[in-house]
Amino acid sequence: MGFISTFGSLLLGALFAVSINAQCTNPTVRREWRTLSTDEKAAWISAVKCLAASPHNPNLTATVNASISQIPAMNTSGSFWDDISYMHMDLNVKIHQTGMFLPFHRWFVHSVEQAMIDKCGFSGGFPYWNWTIDAPDFYESSWWQDSDPESGLGGWGDPDKDYEVQDGAFAGFGLAYPSYHPLRHQYTAQPFAVFAASSPTIAQFFNETMLETYANSTFHTDQIAAIIAGNPGDYVNFQLSLDNWIGAHGSVHAITGGDLAGTCPATTEDCIPGNKWSPNSPLFFLHHAMIDKIWSDWQHLNETSATAFYGGSVQAFDNTTYFAEYPTGAPPLLNTSSEIYTDDMFPGAIIGDVMNHTAGYLCYVYE
Description:
The structure is a single chain. This protein is mainly alpha-helical. It has 14 helices and 6 strands. It has helices at residues 3-8, 38-52, 66-69, 80-95, 101-120, 192-197, 200-203, 208-211, 221-229, 235-243, 248-256, 283-301, 303-306, 320-325, and strands at 28-30, 174-175, 181-182, 312-314, 330-333, 364-366. The strands form 3 sheets. The chain has a two-stranded parallel ribbon with strand order 1-6. A two-stranded antiparallel sheet has the order 2-3. Strands 4-5 form a two-stranded antiparallel ribbon. It starts with a helix and ends with a strand. It comes from Lentinula boryana. This is Di-copper centre-containing protein.
């Protein structure tokens, strides 16, 4: 996988070797999706479908006022997979453009993996999606050409059927939010004008050049390598380089479109689009495992980056000046003792628990 995989080998190197202690003596290995065998792919997909066939978790509790989250009411007849998406919907304003972004999503992927193990017999070793491979020609990439009904992720959705995915293991994958519909993926080369138009608050952060940007121009191999090598020890600017208004994280969501971008199904009335129900798409977790890998590679490249953390708990969206001051969230500030938001969906943790993914609470490495 080029430069990025080279950094993955550092996980077995000296910098953090001392952290692989008695609590983490046999870390699972996270590998790029395309390096998995057909059986390994099918096992991961089967575990996702198992969660989608599991019942609603009655412990799930929305903690953000609906006037702020702007999401529909909880559907208790939905599945455990729908609960996973609903949790992300509810916490959306707390876990994006705040200091919770990277820790929460590291914990979130881990929690879903653990549910797959506990509920569905998954053997672990969560895969990731190295989308730098696909960046040069995202639409025609081989990523979208595996239609195997048991081990394939499927292709682009049919524009005549609201971009519902028609092939692969997730064809007809039913979802409860924002209203019932099958999984959708809609290639959107220049998505930012639509995104900005969804909210006057968001629109203020985009100029004309940004609105015309091709999403896949933001996540090529050399760009991600520069993010990993840049800003040693500077958590704020590292996160900003990865998750700015036009950055690799959001661009992959947006170019994939459909559920991964949080667009509204054609049949849903009074729907407010956004990145809220993006975990509807199983690709969300492959994508965020890649985001986590980039954070891991950055942490392992420089000793000062290993424990670097800084961010607030409130999105600084009042104006562009305020956001420039607090791009990873405004006060009250978070710290490594701050609790990760869970909505009682999964067992809790603090930010410090997930700063090192080979320290015991977490126990995995990247290939």
